Amino acid sequence: MMYIGALMIFIAIVLAVTFGNILKNDTKKIIENINIVKSGKYNTQTINRPDELGEISFAIKDMSKSIKEGIEQIEQLHGEITNTQKEIIYTMGEIAETRSKETGNHVKRVAEYSYLLAIKFGLSEEEASILKLASPMHDIGKVGIPDNILNKPRKLTYEEFEIMKTHAKLGFEMLRHSKKPILQAAAIVSREHHEKYDGTGYPRGLKDKDIHIFARITAVADVFDALGSHRVYKKAWNDEKIFKLFKEEKGKHFDPVIIELFFENISEINKIRDIFKDV
């Protein structure tokens, strides 16, 4: 939008200069014709009547074509930049998942689930799209966790789990300095997606709506996909077991409204899972 705004200002200046020159020339011709009439030395061939509207019309037509071509080029460039940004964000998310021996499709499914639930929750298209791009980086802080803890095939000790929990703060610290809305959202999601609705989560023990809506949505999307996927420390759960946990944790771990939306839209959730299934 910034580029388009700059282009429109440039176009306005060009239009003003173009029309100014046209009207300046036409005014000169009109004055010449007035002087000819005043002198009595005129005939139909002598009078040079300027076709102001015609010249302006052609100028507008040419300028409109240039404007259209310019906007199309800017939109194409903006699209390329956006796609590159998406690719970088997904890659960042996949790096974290790969270190913990999880598939790249995990972050893609979490992104799609989060977008769907955000729309169903009533967030705007813009907000839902930001969350879709931010949620893949929810575990980016895991790049700072030692491999022997990250990939331990058994239950973590208390001390090991305390180290594991630091990935939420690490991710936040990595992203929080950016002024880009997507990375700001990613910083929030990274820090808060392990908070629980009843206040028993980490790292800050936030409760209820003190937890950002982006994090509350991502928590449901992430846990659903993580439980349904194979990990080094566990086998994949079946849907029945996951659904039972979700119903038990409604209002405890998870925002009850988002859990309701999850069940109401389970058919769409399953479609996403089928599209991005692990190979």
Automatic annotation (TrEMBL):
A Pfam family recorded for this sequence: HD_5
Stored InterPro entries: Cyclic_di-GMP/3'3'-cGAMP_PDE, HD/PDEase_dom, HD_domain, HD_GYP_dom
CDD domains xrefs: HDc
Source taxon at top rank: Bacteria
Record-annotated HD-GYP domain positions: 81-278
Annotated GO MF terms: cyclic-nucleotide phosphodiesterase activity
The protein, known as: HD domain-containing protein
Originating species: Poseidonibacter ostreae
